[in-house]
Fold:
Amino acid sequence: MQRSPVQAFIAVGIAIILLFGMQAGHCKDGAAAIPAQMARPGAPGPTQVSIGVWIADLTSIDSANQRFAANLVLALHWRDPSLAHAQPVPVRHNIADIWHPNWLITNASTLQTSFPEVAEVSADGLVTYRQRLIGTFSQKLDLRKFPFDSASFRIHLVAVGQAPEALQFVAHEAKVAGGAPSGAGIDPHLTLQDWKISDLRSGPLQYQDVPGTHFAGYAVEFEATRLVQHYVAKVIVPLMLIVIMSWAAFWLHPSLGGTQVSIAVTSMLTLIAYRSAVGAETPKLPYLTNLDAFILASTVLVLLTLVESVVTTTLVSRGQAALADRIDRFSRYAFPAAYLAVSVLTLFVR
Structure:
Protein backbone atom coordinates (compact mmCIF):
# COMPACT_ATOMS: atom_id res chain seq x y z
CA MET A 1 0.00 0.00 0.00
CA GLN A 2 1.41 3.32 -1.01
CA ARG A 3 1.75 5.87 1.78
CA SER A 4 0.79 9.47 1.41
CA PRO A 5 3.52 12.14 1.86
CA VAL A 6 2.05 13.09 5.24
CA GLN A 7 2.19 9.51 6.53
CA ALA A 8 5.76 9.15 5.31
CA PHE A 9 6.76 12.37 7.08
CA ILE A 10 5.19 11.16 10.35
CA ALA A 11 6.93 7.78 10.11
CA VAL A 12 10.34 9.44 9.60
CA GLY A 13 9.71 11.70 12.58
CA ILE A 14 8.83 8.79 14.85
CA ALA A 15 11.96 6.93 13.76
CA ILE A 16 14.16 9.94 14.58
CA ILE A 17 12.55 10.34 18.00
CA LEU A 18 13.08 6.65 18.80
CA LEU A 19 16.69 6.82 17.65
CA PHE A 20 17.54 9.82 19.85
CA GLY A 21 15.69 8.23 22.76
CA MET A 22 17.80 5.08 22.52
CA GLN A 23 21.04 7.14 22.38
CA ALA A 24 19.98 9.23 25.36
CA GLY A 25 19.20 6.12 27.37
CA HIS A 26 22.53 4.62 26.43
CA CYS A 27 24.42 7.77 27.53
CA LYS A 28 22.51 7.95 30.77
CA ASP A 29 23.28 4.32 31.64
CA GLY A 30 26.96 4.79 30.67
CA ALA A 31 27.40 7.96 32.77
CA ALA A 32 26.51 6.10 35.94
CA ALA A 33 29.23 3.49 35.47
CA ILE A 34 32.91 4.47 35.33
CA PRO A 35 35.06 2.03 33.34
CA ALA A 36 37.03 -0.21 35.69
CA GLN A 37 40.41 0.97 34.34
CA MET A 38 39.52 4.63 35.06
CA ALA A 39 38.30 4.12 38.64
CA ARG A 40 40.68 5.03 41.45
CA PRO A 41 42.23 1.83 42.82
CA GLY A 42 41.51 1.10 46.46
CA ALA A 43 38.46 3.36 46.66
CA PRO A 44 36.83 4.28 48.95
CA GLY A 45 40.09 4.01 50.93
CA PRO A 46 43.25 5.96 50.01
CA THR A 47 45.36 5.01 47.00
CA GLN A 48 49.05 4.73 47.84
CA VAL A 49 51.44 6.05 45.19
CA SER A 50 55.15 5.54 45.75
CA ILE A 51 57.44 8.10 44.21
CA GLY A 52 61.10 8.27 43.34
CA VAL A 53 62.87 11.38 42.02
CA TRP A 54 66.36 11.56 40.59
CA ILE A 55 67.85 15.01 39.97
CA ALA A 56 70.03 14.25 36.96
CA ASP A 57 71.32 17.81 36.62
CA LEU A 58 70.98 21.36 37.86
CA THR A 59 72.05 23.64 35.04
CA SER A 60 71.60 27.10 36.57
CA ILE A 61 70.28 29.15 39.46
CA ASP A 62 69.13 32.57 38.24
CA SER A 63 69.09 34.93 41.22
CA ALA A 64 68.01 37.93 39.15
CA ASN A 65 64.82 36.18 37.97
CA GLN A 66 64.48 33.96 41.08
CA ARG A 67 64.30 30.60 39.36
CA PHE A 68 66.45 27.53 38.69
CA ALA A 69 66.74 25.02 35.85
CA ALA A 70 66.79 21.29 36.45
CA ASN A 71 66.71 17.93 34.68
CA LEU A 72 64.69 15.30 36.59
CA VAL A 73 63.65 11.69 36.27
CA LEU A 74 60.31 10.93 37.93
CA ALA A 75 59.04 7.43 38.73
CA LEU A 76 55.53 6.74 40.09
CA HIS A 77 54.25 3.32 41.18
CA TRP A 78 50.79 2.21 42.29
CA ARG A 79 48.82 -1.02 42.28
CA ASP A 80 45.62 -1.34 40.22
CA PRO A 81 44.00 -4.82 40.41
CA SER A 82 41.68 -3.99 37.52
CA LEU A 83 44.73 -3.94 35.19
CA ALA A 84 46.11 -7.33 36.26
CA HIS A 85 46.72 -9.71 33.36
CA ALA A 86 48.18 -13.09 32.46
CA GLN A 87 50.87 -11.88 30.06
CA PRO A 88 54.49 -12.96 30.79
CA VAL A 89 55.79 -9.42 30.18
CA PRO A 90 54.49 -6.02 31.36
CA VAL A 91 51.68 -4.56 29.30
CA ARG A 92 51.97 -0.93 28.17
CA HIS A 93 49.00 1.44 28.43
CA ASN A 94 48.58 5.00 27.29
CA ILE A 95 48.50 6.97 30.54
CA ALA A 96 45.33 8.77 29.43
CA ASP A 97 43.48 5.44 29.16
CA ILE A 98 43.96 4.36 32.79
CA TRP A 99 43.65 5.96 36.20
CA HIS A 100 46.73 7.94 37.19
CA PRO A 101 47.57 10.60 39.81
CA ASN A 102 47.11 13.46 37.29
CA TRP A 103 50.24 15.16 38.59
CA LEU A 104 51.73 18.56 37.91
CA ILE A 105 54.57 20.59 39.37
CA THR A 106 53.16 23.76 40.90
CA ASN A 107 56.27 25.94 40.70
CA ALA A 108 57.32 24.93 37.16
CA SER A 109 57.67 27.96 34.86
CA THR A 110 58.47 25.85 31.79
CA LEU A 111 58.41 22.07 31.59
CA GLN A 112 59.18 19.58 28.83
CA THR A 113 58.76 15.80 28.92
CA SER A 114 61.05 13.40 27.06
CA PHE A 115 59.58 9.93 27.60
CA PRO A 116 56.34 8.63 26.02
CA GLU A 117 53.20 9.12 28.12
CA VAL A 118 52.77 5.40 28.82
CA ALA A 119 52.68 3.19 31.89
CA GLU A 120 53.87 -0.39 32.24
CA VAL A 121 51.63 -2.82 34.13
CA SER A 122 52.96 -6.09 35.52
CA ALA A 123 50.86 -9.24 35.81
CA ASP A 124 49.85 -8.50 39.42
CA GLY A 125 48.59 -5.01 38.50
CA LEU A 126 51.64 -2.97 39.59
CA VAL A 127 51.67 0.19 37.47
CA THR A 128 54.98 1.94 36.75
CA TYR A 129 55.12 5.36 35.15
CA ARG A 130 58.42 7.07 34.34
CA GLN A 131 59.05 10.50 32.90
CA ARG A 132 62.03 12.73 32.28
CA LEU A 133 61.39 16.41 32.97
CA ILE A 134 63.44 19.36 31.81
CA GLY A 135 62.35 22.81 32.89
CA THR A 136 62.72 25.94 34.97
CA PHE A 137 61.21 26.30 38.42
CA SER A 138 60.36 29.49 40.27
CA GLN A 139 61.82 29.96 43.73
CA LYS A 140 61.55 32.93 46.08
CA LEU A 141 65.02 33.86 47.34
CA ASP A 142 66.17 36.00 50.26
CA LEU A 143 69.23 37.80 48.93
CA ARG A 144 70.02 40.04 51.89
CA LYS A 145 73.38 38.32 52.45
CA PHE A 146 74.29 38.15 48.74
CA PRO A 147 76.89 37.00 47.71
CA PHE A 148 77.52 35.16 51.01
CA ASP A 149 74.06 33.62 50.98
CA SER A 150 72.41 30.22 50.95
CA ALA A 151 68.88 29.15 50.01
CA SER A 152 66.42 26.27 50.10
CA PHE A 153 65.02 25.12 46.75
CA ARG A 154 61.85 23.08 46.20
CA ILE A 155 60.19 21.02 43.47
CA HIS A 156 56.55 20.54 44.49
CA LEU A 157 54.56 17.79 42.76
CA VAL A 158 50.78 17.79 43.27
CA ALA A 159 48.01 15.31 42.36
CA VAL A 160 45.36 17.63 40.97
CA GLY A 161 41.86 16.91 42.24
CA GLN A 162 43.02 14.25 44.72
CA ALA A 163 42.47 15.07 48.38
CA PRO A 164 45.06 13.83 50.91
CA GLU A 165 42.44 11.39 52.22
CA ALA A 166 42.08 9.83 48.75
CA LEU A 167 45.74 9.64 47.68
CA GLN A 168 48.93 9.23 49.67
CA PHE A 169 52.43 9.80 48.30
CA VAL A 170 55.20 7.72 49.90
CA ALA A 171 58.90 7.27 49.19
CA HIS A 172 59.61 4.40 46.83
CA GLU A 173 61.00 1.41 48.74
CA ALA A 174 63.61 0.54 46.12
CA LYS A 175 65.02 4.08 46.25
CA VAL A 176 65.16 3.94 50.05
CA ALA A 177 66.88 0.54 49.95
CA GLY A 178 69.34 1.89 47.38
CA GLY A 179 70.63 4.59 49.73
CA ALA A 180 68.12 7.41 49.19
CA PRO A 181 66.36 7.58 52.60
CA SER A 182 63.66 9.96 51.40
CA GLY A 183 63.16 8.41 47.96
CA ALA A 184 65.13 11.13 46.15
CA GLY A 185 68.68 11.33 44.87
CA ILE A 186 70.94 13.73 43.02
CA ASP A 187 73.78 13.23 40.58
CA PRO A 188 77.11 14.19 42.22
CA HIS A 189 78.40 15.63 38.94
CA LEU A 190 76.26 18.66 38.12
CA THR A 191 76.60 21.30 35.44
CA LEU A 192 76.02 23.96 38.10
CA GLN A 193 79.35 25.52 39.07
CA ASP A 194 78.62 28.53 41.29
CA TRP A 195 76.56 26.82 44.02
CA LYS A 196 77.29 23.95 46.40
CA ILE A 197 74.36 21.54 46.85
CA SER A 198 73.70 19.80 50.17
CA ASP A 199 70.99 18.30 52.37
CA LEU A 200 68.67 16.74 49.80
CA ARG A 201 65.34 15.66 51.32
CA SER A 202 61.80 14.85 50.21
CA GLY A 203 58.43 13.87 51.63
CA PRO A 204 54.65 14.38 51.45
CA LEU A 205 53.58 18.03 51.38
CA GLN A 206 49.98 19.06 50.81
CA TYR A 207 49.16 21.84 48.38
CA GLN A 208 46.46 24.40 49.09
CA ASP A 209 44.69 25.44 45.90
CA VAL A 210 42.23 27.86 47.50
CA PRO A 211 41.53 28.39 51.21
CA GLY A 212 39.98 25.21 52.54
CA THR A 213 40.92 23.04 49.53
CA HIS A 214 43.97 20.77 49.78
CA PHE A 215 45.48 18.36 47.30
CA ALA A 216 47.90 15.52 47.95
CA GLY A 217 51.46 16.51 47.14
CA TYR A 218 55.11 15.56 47.41
CA ALA A 219 58.09 17.92 47.65
CA VAL A 220 61.77 17.47 46.90
CA GLU A 221 63.97 20.07 48.58
CA PHE A 222 67.68 20.77 48.70
CA GLU A 223 69.95 23.36 50.25
CA ALA A 224 72.42 25.35 48.20
CA THR A 225 75.22 27.68 49.24
CA ARG A 226 76.59 30.22 46.79
CA LEU A 227 80.29 29.92 45.97
CA VAL A 228 81.73 33.41 46.38
CA GLN A 229 85.02 33.07 44.53
CA HIS A 230 83.59 34.76 41.44
CA TYR A 231 82.33 37.80 43.34
CA VAL A 232 85.45 38.10 45.50
CA ALA A 233 87.82 37.95 42.52
CA LYS A 234 85.77 39.99 40.02
CA VAL A 235 83.79 42.44 42.15
CA ILE A 236 84.94 42.86 45.75
CA VAL A 237 88.73 42.88 45.24
CA PRO A 238 88.60 45.26 42.20
CA LEU A 239 86.34 47.61 44.18
CA MET A 240 88.79 47.61 47.06
CA LEU A 241 91.63 48.39 44.66
CA ILE A 242 89.68 51.31 43.22
CA VAL A 243 89.07 52.72 46.70
CA ILE A 244 92.73 52.23 47.62
CA MET A 245 93.70 53.98 44.37
CA SER A 246 91.72 57.04 45.47
CA TRP A 247 93.92 57.29 48.58
CA ALA A 248 96.85 58.26 46.37
CA ALA A 249 95.48 61.79 46.66
CA PHE A 250 96.57 61.86 50.34
CA TRP A 251 100.19 61.21 49.37
CA LEU A 252 100.43 64.10 46.91
CA HIS A 253 101.47 67.56 48.02
CA PRO A 254 98.40 69.70 48.82
CA SER A 255 99.52 72.19 46.18
CA LEU A 256 98.67 69.57 43.49
CA GLY A 257 94.96 70.03 44.09
CA GLY A 258 93.96 69.42 40.47
CA THR A 259 95.64 66.00 40.44
CA GLN A 260 94.05 65.05 43.77
CA VAL A 261 90.57 65.92 42.54
CA SER A 262 91.16 64.10 39.24
CA ILE A 263 92.10 60.87 41.08
CA ALA A 264 88.99 61.05 43.27
CA VAL A 265 86.65 61.75 40.34
CA THR A 266 88.11 58.89 38.29
CA SER A 267 87.63 56.50 41.20
CA MET A 268 84.02 57.63 41.61
CA LEU A 269 83.17 57.06 37.93
CA THR A 270 84.77 53.61 38.00
CA LEU A 271 82.71 52.66 41.03
CA ILE A 272 79.49 53.75 39.30
CA ALA A 273 80.35 51.57 36.29
CA TYR A 274 80.97 48.58 38.55
CA ARG A 275 77.65 49.14 40.32
CA SER A 276 75.80 48.96 37.00
CA ALA A 277 77.54 45.70 36.06
CA VAL A 278 76.71 44.02 39.38
CA GLY A 279 73.11 45.28 39.28
CA ALA A 280 72.41 43.14 36.20
CA GLU A 281 73.09 39.98 38.25
CA THR A 282 70.64 40.71 41.08
CA PRO A 283 66.89 41.46 41.04
CA LYS A 284 65.44 44.85 41.88
CA LEU A 285 64.86 44.45 45.60
CA PRO A 286 63.27 46.71 48.23
CA TYR A 287 66.30 46.13 50.48
CA LEU A 288 70.08 46.33 50.28
CA THR A 289 72.11 43.15 49.93
CA ASN A 290 75.49 42.85 51.63
CA LEU A 291 77.19 43.57 48.32
CA ASP A 292 74.97 46.63 47.75
CA ALA A 293 75.92 47.96 51.18
CA PHE A 294 79.60 47.34 50.50
CA ILE A 295 79.49 49.15 47.16
CA LEU A 296 77.54 52.03 48.70
CA ALA A 297 80.06 52.34 51.54
CA SER A 298 82.93 52.27 49.03
CA THR A 299 81.27 55.02 47.01
CA VAL A 300 80.78 57.19 50.11
CA LEU A 301 84.44 56.81 51.08
CA VAL A 302 85.59 57.78 47.59
CA LEU A 303 83.26 60.78 47.77
CA LEU A 304 84.83 61.74 51.11
CA THR A 305 88.25 61.47 49.44
CA LEU A 306 87.04 63.99 46.86
CA VAL A 307 85.75 66.28 49.62
CA GLU A 308 89.07 66.01 51.48
CA SER A 309 91.00 66.92 48.31
CA VAL A 310 88.82 70.00 47.72
CA VAL A 311 89.27 71.09 51.35
CA THR A 312 93.06 70.78 51.33
CA THR A 313 93.29 72.53 47.95
CA THR A 314 91.22 75.41 49.34
CA LEU A 315 93.41 75.65 52.44
CA VAL A 316 96.54 75.86 50.28
CA SER A 317 95.01 78.67 48.22
CA ARG A 318 94.39 80.55 51.48
CA GLY A 319 97.97 80.15 52.66
CA GLN A 320 97.28 77.35 55.14
CA ALA A 321 99.47 74.70 53.56
CA ALA A 322 100.66 73.36 56.94
CA LEU A 323 97.07 72.58 58.02
CA ALA A 324 96.33 70.98 54.67
CA ASP A 325 99.40 68.75 55.02
CA ARG A 326 98.30 67.64 58.53
CA ILE A 327 94.85 66.70 57.19
CA ASP A 328 96.45 64.65 54.41
CA ARG A 329 98.70 62.84 56.91
CA PHE A 330 95.73 62.03 59.16
CA SER A 331 93.68 60.78 56.17
CA ARG A 332 96.44 58.36 55.13
CA TYR A 333 95.60 56.22 58.19
CA ALA A 334 92.03 57.20 59.04
CA PHE A 335 90.55 56.25 55.66
CA PRO A 336 92.07 52.71 55.49
CA ALA A 337 90.99 52.01 59.08
CA ALA A 338 87.46 53.23 58.37
CA TYR A 339 87.26 51.23 55.15
CA LEU A 340 88.40 48.04 56.87
CA ALA A 341 85.71 48.43 59.54
CA VAL A 342 83.02 49.26 56.99
CA SER A 343 83.96 46.27 54.80
CA VAL A 344 83.67 43.82 57.68
CA LEU A 345 80.35 45.31 58.82
CA THR A 346 78.71 45.36 55.40
CA LEU A 347 79.95 42.04 54.00
CA PHE A 348 79.87 39.78 57.05
CA VAL A 349 78.01 41.32 60.01
CA ARG A 350 74.74 42.67 58.53
In short: Residues 321-349 form the longest helix (29 residues). Residues 14-33 have pLDDT under 50 and may be disordered. The radius of gyration is 35 Å.
